[in-house]
Write a structure and sequence with these properties.
- Helix 1 packs across helix 13, helix 3 crosses helix 5 and helix 13 crosses helix 14.
- Helices cover 45% and strands 21% of the residues.
- The protein is of the alpha/beta class.
- The strands form two sheets. The chain has a seven-stranded parallel beta sheet with strand order 3-2-1-4-5-6-13, sandwiched between helices.
Length: 392
């Protein structure tokens, strides 16, 4: 079983995002002597170079393990309470690590946006994780932390104002500055490749309830083409991350015991503004979405400069609509580019939150929103540059 030698092992610390996670822990938790963590990857020399480049202490432990070497992965995870994995696409490089964490009762966090693989892992390992004590938490970055917590937060306001949760919530991206990560593009490509080889996976990919085994909710908006929304007086365009976020929000609802109801309807779109200009912008977003996973997409390990990450941001609007048409609004903002700067802070805080703030969460496969709820909101506001605001 997992020991307590390390609280967290950052696996993939030599990759672009993994390095940012390690850098965040080294900087933000420098004075926290109680937090023990290590860096892991395929090459000790590269790990040492990253450790020195990010200013981590020279005695930061370095662990060598390859994603395909089951024995090395098991030897790594038995030393830790939890592992943060930034080594994607997870359907190509994540199977052995999830299996090792499940077997040893080690908590696991990743940045996965691959719903087909996630469903396969849930089906394969859920019972064993519950038996071993492992808490497996997928999608702990921009997909899908702000969206799950945004839904939770706006539903809190709905309950306060309407006396009940809203049966309909809209998640809308008002502003987003930052580039798509190479890992996200690679994950999308790996998913499309897997589906092309096995057409039975199409049904999972297209199902909004792919991550709620045994539960099928009502028909959901497809969100696949531009539309004008009267209540927001704006055109909207499809949002690339909706494919994973909507699935995770429905899974959260199920894991929490359906606080939003079993008839809950949820979707995500990008707001592009009113009039002809708004319509033109919506069509432009559609075209850009196609490019982002095309041949010119960033490669895994590529990403924006420090300046670009720090100048990035995002602003999400959450609208909870009661059965009688009344609505409440909330805004969720992040102070860095979503795919890297903000994501590296969020996954780090997810791991520490489960470890310190919600240690009693039961074993099994979780979403961050369902497992940690308001304690995670507090931690992200206190440490990770997110804000949650009720809007008039």
């Amino acid at each position: 079983m997992a020991s307590s030698k390390f609280d967290i092992i950052v696996y993939g610390a030599t990759g672009f995002t993994g390095q940012l996670v390690a850098e965040y822990l080294a900087a933000h938790y420098k004075a926290d002597r109680a937090l023990t963590w290590a860096m892991a990857g395929r090459s000790k020399d590269k790990l040492a170079a990253v450790r020195d480049a990010i200013g981590a202490p020279s005695d930061t432990p370095l662990i060598v393990a390859d994603s395909g070497d089951a024995a090395a992965l098991k030897a790594m995870v038995v030393q830790a309470k939890s592992v943060i994995s930034t080594v994607g696409p997870y359907q190509l490089y994540g199977n052995e690590l999830v299996a090792a964490c499940v077997e040893t009762g080690t908590d696991y966090f990743d940045l996965c946006g691959e719903p087909v693989w996630m469903r396969q892992m849930i089906d394969k390992h859920e019972a064993a994780a519950k038996a071993s004590g492992a808490r497996i938490v997928f999608s702990c970055g921009f997909d899908s932390v702000p969206f799950e917590l945004g839904t939770l937060f706006v539903q809190d306001e709905a309950k306060r104002v309407f006396g009940a949760p809203a049966p309909r919530v809209k998640g809308r991206v008002r502003d987003m500055r930052g580039t798509l990560s190479g890992g996200t593009a690679a994950s999308a490509k790996a998913t499309f490749d897997a589906v092309a080889k096995d057409l039975s996976l199409v049904a999972i990919l297209n199902n909004p309830f792919a991550l709620t085994p045994g539960f099928e909710g009502p028909k959901q908006p497809r969100g696949s083409k531009p539309a004008f929304e009267e209540d927001l007086q704006s055109w909207t365009a499809p949002f690339m991350m909706a494919l994973i976020n909507t699935r995770n929000v429905h899974r959260s609802n199920m894991l929490m015991g359906f606080p939003y109801g079993k008839e809950f309807v949820y979707d995500e779109m990008v707001l592009t503004g009113p009039g002809e200009k708004g319509e033109a912008n919506a069509k432009k977003v559609m075209a850009l979405n196609a490019e982002k996973t095309g041949p010119g997409a960033p490669k895994p390990g590529e990403g924006p400069s420090k300046e670009e990450r720090e100048n990035g941001r995002y602003d999400l609007l959450y609208l909870a609509i009661a059965s009688d048409g009344r609505a409440v609004r909330a805004g969720i903002k992040g102070d860095r580019d979503p795919g890297y700067g903000s994501t590296s802070k969020m996954i780090s805080e997810c791991a520490i939150c489960l470890l310190r703030d919600t240690p009693d969460v039961a074993a099994g496969f979780w979403t961050s929103g369902a497992a940690m709820q308001h304690k995670l909101i507090k931690r992200l506001v206190d440490n990770a540059g997110l804000t949650f605001t009720v809007e008039a």
